[in-house]
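seq/struct pair 1
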Amino acid sequence: MYYFYLFFFLFFLSGLFVYIVKYKHFLLMLLSLESMVLSLYFIIMVWISHFFFESFLCIIYLIMSVCESALSLSLLVLLIRMYGNDQVMMFDNLW
């Protein structure tokens, strides 16, 4: 049972590593955030399935992650329409 937690924790850490290393591109940052959200969802799902029988918390978490995905996708489309690429480092010139 602990192998599930270890696997999804490593999945979370790999998403965090990609988020830290590839911070220049907005799309890669969003994909790594989605992998972290997905790994946390699986950890919560395994934890609830072993200790509780109610999965209402998982459904709420999944709804919130879908809302986050839709918002980030709309920001990505707006960013590409305004500036032509998804590089985050070009915003240093604006400030």
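seq/struct pair 2
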Amino acid sequence: MTRAVSILVAGLLLNPLSHAASLYYTISTPDTAIGLSWHAFGGISHAKLTGVTGEVALNPANEMDNRVKVTIPVTTLIASNNLLTYQLKSSMFFDAPRYPNIVFTSSRIVAQGNGNFRIFGSLSVKDVQRPVILEATMEEHDRTAQRDERIALHAMTTISRSAYHMDRFTALVDDTVTIKIDIQAEASHVP
């Protein structure tokens, strides 16, 4: 019996999946963008944020090691017109001079199968931090001679803008904001 237990323990210790290390990725800033959309004045308004930086860590053997951290500079926000861009960056909404970054930090990433994930985390906007859940899909791109391994992560969630103290024009602008995230990340070797 003890021999069988010894063989089982040795097998588990030598199993490559039991020692699988996290795979680290650095967000490719030029290839990553965040889209915002909301209903206003009877139509749909849009804005885009770029300049996104951050890291992704994925461990196929232990989902508790998976994490995403993203920093989004508010100064990169561009809306459908100059007035809306100015208003969104001003103290009426994001208050970019006082709060220059939006930050998302995951607390857990759960694989749902077929490249689908549910990402739990917190979104910090201005001086407010709230829990959010992202529905995400991931595409892996194979390593080639010219490019490092890359992943593409597409995620979506909705938030309440008033939960982040952005409650101006409530009679004309819906409270629900849809966030669409398109991240491209390259393999890195730094944990």
